[in-house]
Amino acid sequence: MAKVKVILQTDIAGLGEEGDIKDVAGGYARNYLLPRNMVAPATKSNLKMLEQQRSQIETKQEQRRVEARALADRLATMPLDFPVRVGEQGRLYGAITAQDIADRLKAQGVEIDRRTIELREPLRALGAVDVPVRVAHAVTGHLKVTLRDQTAPVAVAEEPAAPAAESGPEQLGEDAVPLGAASVDTVVPSSEIAPEPLQGDAQGAQGAEGAGATTSDTDAETATGA
User: Fold this and answer.
1) pLDDT at residue 178, rounded to an integer
2) Count of domains in the chain?
């Protein structure tokens, strides 16, 4: 089939970047590329215009590469998890396709053409797979896609137990007494305790008081008689 020379007006996956001059099949150019304004015929006038716009095109291309690299870095931090139904002998019901991956990315705010997701065939096995994504003509990102049994429990990291609080005087109740400390109500210095009199001593004291009183009365009577 005869080929024609065209100027790419935009980046085309598998073909080239904007401003590139390529030979493509006539039917491909006529039926697909030209109707979509993706290429222009490489005529003398178009080639001359291309040279005049070359600097602008290169500046635009560099900006696209910067954006593409940023997107590739973002994809590397966006692992995708697909819970799937698993039948006997570990066989999956259905498969995960490039469209499924594109839909999941879109739900997370990333627009990706499913045709740039380079899956040779749909994913049909449990486990993690590295999936290349062609985000620009010369930039490829990578996605981690994991298929897991939807009935399998998802591991959740346990939070470390809080350390036991240390007991201190400020944490005890109002009536509690720390170990080794004296209670105001239970310990009184010995110097402040008055000895209690014995029973015999008490009776003797009372007898002495009575004797003293009798002697005083006798002395008073003697003085009166005198």
Assistant:
1) 47
2) 2
